[in-house]
Amino acid sequence: MSSSYRITLLAGDGIGPEIMAVARQLLDAVSQRHGFSLTYNEQPMGGAAIDATGEPLPASTLEACKASDAVLLAAIGSPQYDSLPREKRPETGLLGLRSGMGLFANLRPVKIIPALIDASTLKREVIEGVDLVVVRELTGGVYFGQPKGRVEADGQVRAFNTMAYSDYEIDRIAKVGFDLARQRGSKLCSVDKANVLDVSQLWRDRVEALHAAEYPEVELNHMYVDNAAMQLVRAPRQFDVVLTSNLFGDVLSDEAAMLSGSIGMLPSASLGSDGPGLFEPIHGSAPDIAGQDKANPMAMVLSAAMMLRVGLQQDAAATDLELAVERTLAAGFRTGDLMAEGCNQLGCKAMGEQLLRALEG
Ligand code: IPM
Ligand code: MG
Prior knowledge:
Isopropylmalate Dehydrogenase, 2 domains, two-stranded antiparallel sheet, alpha/beta, 12 helices, 10-stranded mixed beta sheet, binds 3-isopropylmalic acid, globular
């Protein structure tokens, strides 16, 4: 195992720099303890890159990402860029990074941390024991489909996107889902809208064919996306691996995040068939609280843990970070998003210090 890794850090916008600073401190501590070293290359991305270079994803940032062992991203986006043409917006930079690095598989695990059960808006008996992963296709579907655009004709304005998948795109993401199911509870729920959409019918056909050919031992069921949205809040324990397309996964993963009490708790990994992975919290840049030392850095720290485990195969170090989060919560420390009676409310920085203490203690 290599003992030195090159990490590209993309702090981005909003709360990004604050939560990245916390993750970095913890990574330094945990790598030292486990006898490996991390060298960081900070690159501009999103609005920060627009300000510096005029582009949300400068070519030099993408190159640095591709040349590293793993990429850690905090968050991008801010309302001040919303009026720019789409190709100049922070979100377009993120999509460019995902497709430029070939990151077609997005893994978003949702596991209920016992100390946070009462932080959820859902009842304890509904969420207790939830442990699922959303496997979201990330480089296709309606996010990338052509043609797309906006036209004006006969005094009317019309805008359109195309939701399209090719067989090989479905097969490779379905494989990721089935492989993951094999390592977990051996259940896969494929979410689509095959009762209406041709693209979803192809999705369903390919998933079924792959199941029959290569994964007959995995328990497979199909669910329409509207029903899946309902089932996620009605009976979320029924899910193990949820396999779905780019847009449906975007929506369902935010919904699933709330099972855990706060979107500020959820990490993600984006992976390709080879090359470095990208690790980022699923929450956004929270411009409303940016720069106020209020952000919850835990999803960022858990993303760093995912980077250690999935990207760098440093399992023990990853576990240490996860335990630090659990211990800090069990000791009653909370950021504002998770605050409950009897707990101790901390800002982002102070939470970082508690996490460090929990890691070392
Ligand atoms: C996410 C985000 C992004 C997406 C945005 C920021 C482009 O919502 O990672 O879920 O829609 O994929
Ligand atoms: Mg989203």
